[in-house]
Amino acid sequence: MADLKLMKGNEALAEAAIRAGVDAYFGYPITPQSEVIEYLMSQQPEKRTGMVVLQAESEVAAINMVYGAASTGKKVMTSSSSPGISLKLEGISYLAGAELPAVIVNVVRGGPGLGTIQPSQADYFQSVKGGGHGDYKLYVLAPASVQEMSDFVADAFDIAFKYRAPVLILSDGLIGQMMEKVVLKDEKPRLSNEEIIKQYGSWAVTGKKDRERNIITSLDLQAEKMEARVHRLLKKYGQMEKEDLRYEEVHCEDAEYLFVAYGSSARIALKAVELAREKGIKAGLLRPITLFPFPKKQLFKLADQVKGMLSVELNAGQMVEDVRLAVEHKVPVEHFGRTGGIIHTPEEVLEALEQKIMNHGSIRHHKTRESGILQN
Amino acid sequence: MEVLDIIKPENQVFCKTKLMTDTSLSYCPGCGHGTAHNLTMEVIDELGIAENTIGVAPVGCSVLAYDFMNIDMTQAAHGRAPALATAISRLWPEKYVFTYQGDGDLAAIGTAETIHACNRGENIVIIFVNNGIYGMTGGQMAPTTLSGMKTSTSPYGRDVEKMGAPIRMTELISNLPGVYYATRQSVHTHKHARKAKKAIQKAFENTRLNKGLSFVEIVSNCNSGWKMTPNDANHWMEENMFPYFPLGDIKVDGKLKSVAQ
Ligand SMILES: Cc1ncc(C[n+]2csc(CCOP(=O)(O)OP(=O)(O)O)c2C)c(N)n1
Ligand code: SF4
Ligand SMILES: [Mg+2]
Questions:
Q1: Do residues A54 and A65 make contact, with C-beta atoms less than 8 angstroms apart?
Q2: Whose CA is nearest to atom 12 of ligand 1?
Q3: Is B69 in a helix, a strand, or coil?
């Protein structure tokens, strides 16, 4: 029996966390995601499932609580929005280095600085290029609906525990705040302490009963050991690319022009595809669902078929760099995006395709090549 | 008598702390960290709680505490140990959870985490080794550095007008209702070490009784950072550190003591 509800994205995510059997949530209020902790508190999860929910004194404390909890093999998550995520980055780097599973949610708002509380996708670079210090990556899931805000919680934990690595759900103020219908998953019980010790006792710190002690650290003072740790991480990222890439193609079969967009931009680009098709323009959409791993091969292949691509983002141009890298100059790739919290309209997006790609694409393409030769 | 006749359990008056690993300590000779480690591990061993204890190591000279303490441990980011301990203790309330931190870690970068863990009255033990300096990074000024004391970042002596006065962290946190026990000890003589051990014991017993936060400060020397011989460092500590950081209990069983001056 489907549990159909009308919910805000942030609330759907919070409810999904309880239902996914999450053991703990640590957070600090910030717009546009405070509903996550507010909803959790309203549900009294300590009574419902025994889940621990604590309002920390800062995002720094919250992520380090996550680190502590994760080191004991428990399912733990935190959420915040852009400025708060900046504060969490040291902790996220530690989670990656110490190889701990955890889920972090960023309901992105515009920046830099205190910026705006309006939706944005300006944290793309921070999310997929590392963000914090050191050689690490996050597995990044980008929900485009309230349904995905709900579904991706359990998916994120599956990946986090499969790889013993932190996973980021990269949402934004639009998806977090809007209401939509959502089918909630059934409640899964939390693991018992005995089950945790049985499943994760080989590494988690739970007290060294009946075994040698466990240590959780990201420190290796010996260069060779540190390099081995980095290689271990690289191996995980390689495996993620092979086994856990996610993307969606809409009208790509016969597309001559391609929009590339994730999250809320993908919703708008989807409408732009419809408008384009009504005008007789064969447009399609590739929506990366994971931003790392990124659908590089799919874009490379589509570049043999389409005449140009437009990366639609709520920022000044970030993912467009990865699309260009993937396409290897086979076709022109341009960016269209609004910033400051302004959300582009489907009409604007289609117009951008017409102006930046359809009318100027080939000329620009040649120019790029020429200047490349000149620079050499 | 042969040597082997003498080395019998019944003749033994002293042995290596059981819960310390065989890894040789990375501390400078005469440093208080080693003794503080030993005492903590002795207490955990004697209380029979080694299998139910989780320690949190700091960033500082004792970052490698997990190499020496033979129990489950997580190494925290600089200053954040109380946040980790909060989560561990909340999720495993039946476990004994402690942090081991230096003064830079606890009283500078981690001030917020320290105060809020204390304020929430987390059921944990904080062992706070105050040596008035940043030992690990080569002897820079700490929030606890005494007035006039020379360090590499206060080469002309700490000027309290510009750099603030040394913080008495234990007094500060004892005003918070969540703190059940706050004490200041030292480990530089046998007598002091025995008292410090009793304090650590009391702290872990408080955890067992679910009493909230226990805070054990250990005033210690950093002979390398202070640029003194271990012996001189201990004398200097008695003459200069103890008057400003007086030893003794500050809060016991949730009640402030009027001593500590
Ligand atoms: C975020 C961060 N800032 C700075 C450092 C550098 N650092 C390492 S240890 C330390 C000071 C430690 O001093 P203290 O806590 O007093 O410990 P001690 O070595 O004296 O025992 C500093 C500043 C770091 N590792 N991480
Ligand atoms: S530098 Fe200071 S604190 Fe560090 S081991 Fe040496 S004496 Fe001890
Ligand atoms: Mg120090």
A1: yes
A2: B60
A3: strand
Residue B211 Cβ < 6 Å to ligand 1: no
- Residue of B70, B72, B91 lying closest to A69 (CB–CB): B91
Residue ranges of domains in chain B, CATH in brackets: 26-256 (3.40.50.970)
| Cβ neighbours of A187 (radius 10 Å) | 14
Q: What residue has token string 């025995």?
A: B194
Residue pLDDT, tens place only, A303-335: 999 999 999 999 999 999 999 999 999 999 999
Average pLDDT over residues A248-268: 98
Residue nearest ligand 2's atom 1 by CA: B135
Closest ligand 1 atom to Cα of B58: 15
Beta-carbon contacts of B224 under 8 Å, excluding residues fewer than 6 positions away, are B28, B31, B135, B139
| Chain B hits for A59, Cβ within 8 Å | none
Q: Is the pLDDT of residue B90 over 80?
A: yes
Ramachandran angles phi, psi of A172, nearest 5°: -155, 170
Show residues of chain A in contact with B19, CB under 8 Å.
none
Cβ within 8 Å of residue A105, ≥6 positions away: A13, A33, A36, A77, A78, A79, A80, A168, A169, A171
Nearest CA to ligand 1 atom 24: B78
Residue A113 has phi, psi (to 5 degrees) of 70, -150
Interval B132-151: pLDDT, tens:
999 999 999 999 999 999 99
Span from the CA of B16 to the centroid of ligand 3 (angstroms): 26
- Domains (range + CATH), chain A: 3-193 (3.40.50.970), 247-373 (3.40.50.920)
- pTM for this model (two decimals): 0.95
Tell me the chain B residues in contact with residue A78 when contact means C-beta distances shorter than 8 Å. Answer: none
ipTM higher than the 0.90 cut: yes
